[in-house]
Structure formats: C-alpha cells, structure tokens
Amino acid sequence: MLIQCTKKLLEQLDIKPVSGVEEEPLFSWHTNLIIVNRRKTLVLVNDLTRYVVVLYGVKGKDFKKIDELILEGIRETLREEGIKEEVIEKYLLSSQNVTFAKTKDRTSVARMNRACESLYFYPSDLDATNIFKPRVSRRVSRLMVGDGKNRYIHPNEEMYKNLEGLAGHPIFGSRAVQLKVTLNLEGNSAWRRIVVPLNRTFPHLHDILQFAFDWEDSHLHEFTFYEGGKPGGHSSSPHQSLGHKPVLTLVCTDEAFNYPVHHERILEMGVKLSEYLPAYQRLTYTYDLGDDWKHEIEVEKTIEEYDAPHPICLEGEGNTPPEDVGGSGGYEEFLKILADPNHPDYQHMRHWGRMQGYKEFDIEQVNRFLKRV
C-alpha cells in the first residue's frame, strides 16, 4: 500500500519518504494530516476511486504504528459498507507492505484537500470514542466529485466497481434485518418497511428513518427498548411496547443525562444495530421530544446474506406530518384545515405546509436518498 503524505504528515511521522516507488492507483492513497475539533485527523483519498477513509483523534503514540492503523481503518470502513470479509482481505493482502512517499502531483493534492474540506460538514459524526470513522468516511465518499474528464463520479461506486474486478465476483454480503416502522398517529396511517444492514450504527438508523419518513432532522431523537421486546417476551404486537417498562434508551446527546429516568441510558454513538437486533425484536424511535413522534419498530425477519451496500425501502404508505405542527393533535387540525378550502386559514396552512416540506410519500425518492446514506 502506497501512502503519499503531505509535508506536514511526514514531519509528524518523522520518517524519510521513499522515492521512485510505483504502485497501482487502486492501492495508492494521498494522505493529509489536519486538525478537526483540536484533534489530529488523517484523511486518506484513494488515487483511483477518490474513496475516503478517515482516522480521527490520532495521538502521538498512534503514529508509531500508523501503518497498522491505516490498514485497519480501511478494513473497518469497507466492512461497514457491507463488503465481504474475503474481498477486504484480498484487497489488503494484494498490497500488504505499507510504503510512505511524498505527494505525487498538484491534482492529487487538490482532490485530497477537497475531501478534507468536506469533512467539516459532518461534525456530529466525529467523536473521540474510536479512532476509526467509517460513518463519516462513507458520507464523504458518497459526495459527487469531478474526475477531470468532464464527468462526475461517486467515489463509493468507483470503489465497489474496482473491488469487484479485483475479486472476480459480487462483493456484498452482510447480515441485515427487515423492519416495519409505524408512526403512531391518531386516525391516520404512516408506515415503512425497510431493510437495514446490521453492521450499521443507531445514528445511521436515525438517518435512514429521517429519509424514510421525510423528516428534516432538526430535533433530538432517541431509541428505547422495552420489557417484552425480546423473543419469548409477552408483547404480541409492536404497538403494545409503550405500555411496557423501558429497560434501555439510546440517546443522541449528553444533555439527555440531565433529566432523571429510572432505566439505563447510553449514548448511541458507535453502537451497532447488531448489539441489540434481532435480540430485541421491538423498540421505539422517538423524534422531536416536543411533538413526541413515536415510531414503533418491529424486526420482521433477519436476512443472512444481504447483497446491497445500502438500506432499501420495500414499501410503505401514508404521509409524514410537517415539522413543528404540534404533535398528533396539531396534525389532525392541520389536515382538517387542508380538507376545507373555505376555512379562513386554508391558504396560510397550505403555504406553511409546503414550506415545512409536507408532501406525498414517494418511495422512489426515498430510495434515491437511502442509496447515498
């Protein structure tokens, strides 16, 4: 593996770069050392595909074994893509020795710098719990980039294509769960059936549900597990879980710990779905703790060999209420006004609804978004 470093990174590594070394572009990465949130961060950009791998919070002792950490960072990121283990190992073993060199040319450096700039758009994905950051790596790798030939590419798709060429067979295969997610509404129905790889995290599931229900991601959220949510429990319906005692809540912010509850809470950052699903087959996702939109989640089945790199919405029905409509009661009033063109607030409410993004459920649009998550 050829790691082509900026001057700043070479100084940090305190090594003499090799010269005159060549490597196939698929196994070559341009790498920069930047400071994000006062933490040292390595950003690797693949020379052939523009795929990005991020190592965050790199400490002084880590630089002594940076070759091992780089390989592990690539492994963890590709693993979370749902790529088969044997494909990942073949890629890493095809260029096992890590060699450090200077950056190659101005074009590669410019492309690397653009990837570094994109990192600042995802501050919530950068936490100090783990040096490897596959979630933000995937996000940056899904941003469309120009390849200098009057066309645009998605780095993740380019990486998939080249890894499949290297492996000689399909590269995806991970465990997944099929979920039915039902939004609790009075007198209305809104639900989605989605497939999600189990190697994703709960913050990622939050993103998926935001797209699936066309929310705006402008409020806090949490996931709650209840007694009876495990196989063999006494809950016979996903809609009964709210009547059971909560046993664990995954929260999205430290502020949640300021409010007393009588069950365990932990931060969701870095927690994979596989740690709780399908062991728990029912849980609740609450979005906007003011309007209190509760989504009942039921694990319908487990898929042992899911052959896609992204979640998918299989079916669904019903519209999502506008943000800040005032909960279920406010939504009922909103629909009542829209159903009566003679109502004095009809035009205002119609315009307000459009401004809030209120629209019909569109499964094709949902899946276009999910492909990029």
Structure keywords:
373 residues, alpha+beta, Nucleotidyltransferase, domain 5, Structural Genomics Hypothetical 15.5 Kd Protein In mrcA-pckA Intergenic Region, Chain A, 10 helices, 25% strand
How would you summarize this macromolecular structure in one to three sentences?
This protein has ten helices and 15 strands. The chain has helices spanning 7-13, 66-80, 85-94, 106-119, 134-141, 155-167, 202-212, 327-338, 346-355, 363-370; strands at residues 2-5, 28-36, 39-46, 52-56, 99-102, 145-146, 152-153, 174-183, 191-197, 221-226, 246-251, 264-267, 282-287, 293-306, 312-317.
Give unreliable regions as ranges.
Answer: 234-240
- How many distinct beta strands? 15
For the report, how would you describe the main beta sheet? 8 strands, mixed
The span between the termini is: 28 Å
- How would the global form be characterised? elongated
Number of helices: 10
* Residue-averaged pLDDT: 92
Strand percentage lies at 15-25%
Biggest sheet strand order reads: 12-11-10-13-14-8-9-15
Radius of gyration: 23 Å
The CATH architecture name of the largest domain reads 2-Layer Sandwich
Description:
The chain has 373 residues and is α+β, with helices and mostly antiparallel strands. It has 2 domains: 2-167, Nucleotidyltransferase, domain 5 (2-Layer Sandwich); 174-320 and 358-370, MM3350-like (Structural Genomics Hypothetical 15.5 Kd Protein In mrcA-pckA Intergenic Region, Chain A). The chain has helices spanning 7-13, 66-80, 85-94, 106-119, 134-141, 155-167, 202-212, 327-338, 346-355, 363-370, and strands spanning 2-5, 28-36, 39-46, 52-56, 99-102, 145-146, 152-153, 174-183, 191-197, 221-226, 246-251, 264-267, 282-287, 293-306, 312-317. Strands 12-11-10-13-14-8-9-15 form an 8-stranded mixed beta sheet, covered by helices on one side. The longest helix is centred in the first third of the chain and has 15 residues, at 66-80.
